[in-house]
Design brief:
Radius of gyration: 30 Å
Mean pLDDT: 84
Low-confidence stretches: 1-12, 156-163, 695-710
Length: about 700
């Protein structure tokens, strides 16, 4: 006789050949996709653009200045300020040494600024040399090489010149600042990828408690990430799509976060179906039918929300829309095709040691989410009211949000360029060391120069290059960079210099703030409408989608409020990125509503099966709570990876989105949406047919279902 199979061991049912053929065909198709996409994915970094015009508003005055400067003779200039400083005052030997070193730079590089001339500070402690070169042009690598060569010629390392103890030499200016920024961007892709993969791997191991299963979704989401990079590279070549290092990094986080969420939901449902269905292929089909609509709607809301960014005037935000949407669509495609095929081919044993045997049931136990649902069901009004009050209190923190983040304050670790600008601000209080750039029609250049010098708040103005019908004028304000006085000077120049454009770093920052305000007024309503339409189509209701929309908006306000409490006081940030409110809204609404979709979709499924409205809400929470919690932790952790990067804007983004996702997962979905659904009963499905269905007596207690069924 054959050996008796243990009760827990899965029956060995050989799948039909056609089932394996379908699965293998899907896997081989993806192998071909990876083979084709691999070489192009590696080229995405080569076409990422981080020039200032790639971030600026498309229609802003400062953007026009940057474009005109690129067309002037020699192209875009690299403007530096070399700063020599000694506490207590520079010596004659220091000044002679400084001039000698600057002459060496002029001999090695053609300088548009002419022979270097030092400008001493009134207290004699500092000597600055403006240096401008058109040699690098718009080539980022050439600019970085020029800045690095200048730094090397000035001394053995930043901070000490020629071994003269106590004499510091620093290179600042917009060219050095942009070079330091690009050096940070070069490290983002690799650092972000390694950190994201590590975080997702750890969370999957803890979730599945299997030595093999976690590898499958991680490998599949890696395929999705590679494919998305290749597709974006194709868009850049075909449609001249603007891709910055920032948008490329955010796309990586989106692919891993959203893709892993979809995998968690599908695997949870597949595990459940394996207990009811004998063949893995049939179990996977049942799982796809069960959770497929929710996953499709989830990805649809994210893609629709991101594509609303195409209406932005800010170049970087408008480029982020299609970049992020492509990443989400690639993650969806891989998780609904490649992941199911691989799981079917591997069979039940991939779940070892917790193999879901056919005909088995999970041990009944009281879960955390059962307890949470019980409290929401017993006192729904109190739970809902308390939760709303808590979110409102947290949202009050927005009153403490710091002002706009300047370029100099955009690093978590201060680079040499920022240190140089701080030294200049202290040593030259009577004038700014950072020029305001004005481009005037060449035939009116003398008149504009005179008008600029006569403008209130202007300390000096000098004419520069002329070409293509324009003349460049450098205007120095009496007030330091990013101060209220300098901004007033910029406004006065724009109001008084007809036919000219006013730009430069401070003007660019002002235009960024105004454009983000404008974009928020346009895009936020578009995102709300787009997400609402997707929810209405999925849930066949108006009330339920409005509840979910109100919930994610409340979470966004609370998350920003928490940012207002910690950005300055705890993190020590001197400002907030102007684009944070808009981008965090898009991510939290588009991504946060996902968990509402998973909960409401299961709630509707229970209601359609005849369950009492309150029972349907509590059952939906009990059965989806575990997998939603896992998905929320993964998504929050992937965005939290951004907090390890050396850019303040990305740290702030990572904090707000991660905190918002956690609030949404463990407070809003668990308590507020559930309690609101219990209070409203069938009215939550108004005006759909489900809201008019007559009441049904509570059903007999069902066997406990594994967490994750949708």
């Amino acid at each position: 006789m054959g050996a008796v199979r243990s009760a827990t061991e899965p029956p060995q049912v050989k799948p039909p050949a056609r089932h394996r053929a379908v699965a293998w065909a899907i896997v081989l198709l993806w192998v071909a996709v990876v083979a084709l996409a691999g070489p192009f994915a590696g080229k995405l970094g080569d076409v990422q653009r981080d020039n200032i015009v790639d971030y600026l508003p498309a229609s802003a005055d400062s953007t026009q200045v940057a474009k005109i400067q690129q067309a002037l003779p020699g192209g875009e200039s690299t403007d530096l300020v070399v700063v020599f400083h000694r506490d207590g005052g520079l010596t004659d030997a220091d000044r002679a040494d400084a001039q000698r070193r600057l002459d060496g730079i002029a001999d090695a590089h053609p300088l548009a600024s002419g022979p270097p001339r030092g400008v001493p500070s009134q207290d004699g402690s500092t000597l600055m040399f403006p240096v401008s070169s058109n040699e690098p042009g718009t080539d980022n690598e050439a600019r970085a090489a020029f800045v690095e060569d200048v730094r090397e010629r000035l001394g053995d390392g930043a901070g000490v010149s020629g071994g003269r103890e106590g004499l510091t030499v620093e290179v600042g200016g917009s060219g050095a600042l942009q070079t330091d920024m690009e050096a940070v961007f070069e490290t983002i892709d690799g650092t972000l990828m390694i950190a994201t993969v590590s975080v997702v791997a750890v969370l999957l191991i803890l979730t599945y408690r299997s030595p093999f299963l976690w590898l499958v979704p991680l490998a599949v989401v890696g395929v999705a990430a590679l494919t998305s990079r290749a597709v974006i590279y194709g868009f850049v070549q075909g449609f001249d799509l603007t891709v910055t290092s920032q948008s490329g990094g955010i796309m990586t986080v989106l692919v891993f976060g959203a893709g892993t969420d979809y995998a968690l939901l599908l695997v949870a449902r597949y595990r459940e179906e394996l207990r009811r269905v004998q063949r893995p292929y049939d179990a996977m089909l049942a799982a796809l039918r069960g959770c497929g609509p929710a996953v499709l709607a989830s990805s649809g809301t994210v893609a629709a929300g991101l594509l609303c960014l195409l209406a932005a005037d800010l170049n970087s935000a408008r480029g982020l829309g299609p970049v992020g949407a492509v990443g989400v669509v690639c993650a969806l495609a891989a998780m609904l095709t490649l992941l199911p095929a691989v799981l079917v081919l591997l069979g039940r044993r991939v779940f070892w040691p917790l193999v879901p045997a056919y005909g088995s049931r999970l041990k009944q136990r009281r879960s955390l989410f059962t307890a949470m649902g019980g409290s929401a069901g017993r006192r729904p009004g109190l739970v809902l009211g308390s939760g709303v009050v808590l979110l409102c209190v947290l949202a009050l923190g927005v009153l403490g949000l710091p002002g706009s983040l300047s370029q100099e304050d955009g690093f978590t670790d201060r680079p040499e360029s920022v240190s140089a600008m701080r030294t200049l601000a202290d040593a030259y209080p009577e004038r700014s060391a950072q020029p305001i750039s004005v481009v005037a029609p060449a035939d009116r250049a003398d008149q504009v120069l005179a008008e600029a010098r006569a403008t209130d708040g202007v300390a000096a103005a000098e004419a520069g290059r002329t070409g293509d019908g324009w003349t460049e004028i450098a205007v120095f304000a009496k007030d330091g960079p990013d101060t209220a006085g300098e901004r007033a000077t910029i406004e006065a120049l724009r109001a008084g210099l007809d036919g000219s454009h006013v730009g430069g770093p401070s003007a660019q920052q002002r235009d960024l703030e105004e454009t983000n305000t404008r974009d928020s007024l346009v895009i936020i309503p578009l995102v709300l409408v787009a997400v609402l339409l997707v929810l209405i189509a999925l849930l066949r209701s108006l009330v339920a989608p409005l509840i979910l929309i109100a919930a994610v908006v409340a979470v966004w306000g609370a998350a920003l409020g928490l940012g207002g409490l910690v950005f300055e006081g705890l993190f020590g940030f001197d400002g907030m990125d102007p684009g944070l409110p808009l981008l965090s809204f898009v991510f939290l609404v588009a991504l946060g509503v996902d968990y509402g979709i998973f909960l409401m979709h299961r709630m509707r499924e229970e209601a359609l099966s005849g369950a009492d409205p309150a029972a349907a809400a509590l059952t939906a929470l009990r059965t989806t709570g575990g997998v939603i919690a896992s998905a929320g932790l993964v998504l929050a952790a992937t965005f939290a990876v951004l907090m390890n990067l050396p850019l303040v804007a990305l740290v702030e983004m990572g904090f707000v989105v991660a905190v918002g996702v956690l609030l949404d997962t463990f407070l809003v979905r668990t308590y507020l949406v559930t309690s609101a659904s219990v209070l409203l009963g069938r009215r939550v499905w108004w005006p759909g047919a489900l809201s008019r269905r007559p009441g049904v007596a509570p059903m007999a207690p069902e066997a406990p279902q594994p967490a994750g069924r949708l």
